[in-house]
């Protein structure tokens, strides 16, 4: 199969074949280790939206709330109220934003299909959440650039996505079987991203990643003559 894509995170064209199953081929960037699906084997936006519409994200689902608490709890324990936050890729049922609003924060939401309000992408935020989103993005560099531009200095970007461990486990990994999942990160990939943005990085549990935007460096003091 001929590869038509460069790496969507770092732009490298040094790409190696990583895995093949009955559905697709998977490729890995030799620079940042991102594993991804070539553009020729991705679903269309219409197909993607239909798959999302089939998901059941009930705001009253306690299991779903416990799942999202893995992102909400680090924010609630670390960020003083009230703070302004953005839930990027909130989906049709913005439960995480609701949970953080309950905790005393002022939340905005954005989603390409369900809450497409470009105005919220012009603000500045004390934190941004991106839960089960980055694996759907063909060009994560573009999205990460945008999200970091929306963060205030010292503010965290809190992501949730399952992480690639190795080739052996990838072969039987259920996560890759969702046809809307096209970009797969490992700890090494996120460490590379942190280096790109000069951010601190923290891994919380098995699937939560916190990238903290650098503080603005202090201006040099004027020499007293």
From TrEMBL:
Keyword set includes Secreted: no
Keyword line: Methyltransferase, Transferase
Presence of the UniProt keyword Nucleotidyltransferase in the record: no
Pfam family, one: Methyltransf_23
GO biological process terms held by the UniProt record: methylation
Highest rank taxon of the organism: Bacteria
GO molecular function, one term: methyltransferase activity
InterPro entries: SAM-dependent_MTases_sf
SUPFAM superfamilies associated with the record: S-adenosyl-L-methionine-dependent methyltransferases
Identification of the protein by name: Methyltransferase
Organism name: Pseudoalteromonas byunsanensis
